[in-house]
Amino acid sequence: MQHLNPIRFFSAIALVTLLAACGKDSTAPDNSGGTPEVPNPPAADVWQAGALTAWTFIANNTQASTGLAKSHETFQFVTTWDIASQIAATYSAHELGIIDDANYDSRIKKILATLTTLPLYQGAAFNRFYDSQTGQMVDRNFKPSTTGFGWSTTDIGRLLTWLRVLAVNQPQYSAQATAIKNRLNMGRLISGGTLMGVDVDANGSTITYAETGLGYEQYAAGGFALWGNRASNSLNPTATAKAATVLGVNVWIDGRGNARLTSEPYIMMGLETGFWASALKDQAQAVLAAQKARNDQQGIITIVTEDAMPDAPYYFYYYSVYHSGKTFVVEGPGYGTVVSNPRWVSSKAAFAWHAIFPSDYTLKAFNAVQAAAMPGHGWGAGVYEGTLKPTGYATLNTAGMILEAVLYHKLGKAFLSQPIS
Length: 421
Fold this sequence. Notes:
This protein is an alpha+beta fold. It has a single domain, classed as Glycosyltransferase.
């Protein structure tokens, strides 16, 4: 049985608590009428304009004390996944000419200096959450902690990918990036060829588990492999795969349990490292094709992933192509929390899919999410299906992926040429 990945779950729970306290809500959209006509984008360079809007989030929310950006304007706690997204955003903004060399160097050096000194859980790995203002570990209740409450190799794998991008493409940061990687106890993070996570639950019990899930698992393992630390079982894209069909499209799902099939890991692979196995590229194209099939058959623009949203009751939702026998299912943070709405077209996923596999369909989705731009704040999660009204709610991860997508569009290739094997 597949173990629930606590970091994805707990990050979502944290956002639920935050947003519920803020009292944010929205009326569920009417999806019954199909999708209205999408206007053509403005004549200006929509890609660069999108990157500039995304960068405003980073510029507005970076803490001078640590160089780390808040994950949301009102939420100052971050995971290593968030920190990786900030490195990605900053790298992309520099390559796109949004920030100059001096600004970039200052920002990257500050982030790397903070990563060099952040306290580690049991001296082995980065804790699940940190205070972006102080750099302190926090506990499950976001209170300062000297012990923390575990780690996620999924999050750490994303950070390792971005440290490798810096080390390879910008050698002036290689020594710092390598020193940060060397802080990690790889013998505890990889066991028997599988990525391992640790969670300290609300009762204080420590749980060590295999951090699995088709897609995310391969993405994270790729980050470790870039540094020569191979989790051979986790790298294999088909060993645990099981065939399924979604609206006539053949896809792979995880045969071990409850892994959600969504866009996120595949678009990150495509942007950052490229699809280092043919099965991964085939799967990415199938995941996108299934989303297009829903549009073709039901007339609803469909681009799904996970996002923080302003909608009750959960405020954080997974929108999956397939999960637990259901297609195009929306859920809150925990399993068994299926809801009818919200349903939205994801900004970050629309940008990324259109960058990696451009087509008339991805252009249609890309045009639709332009309404989600929030000048002066960043990008909202997307637009609601049916109405195409913007969701609002700008976050660090949305900003980071949009900046990555714009850079990929400019380069026409993934950021790293180093093979993963």
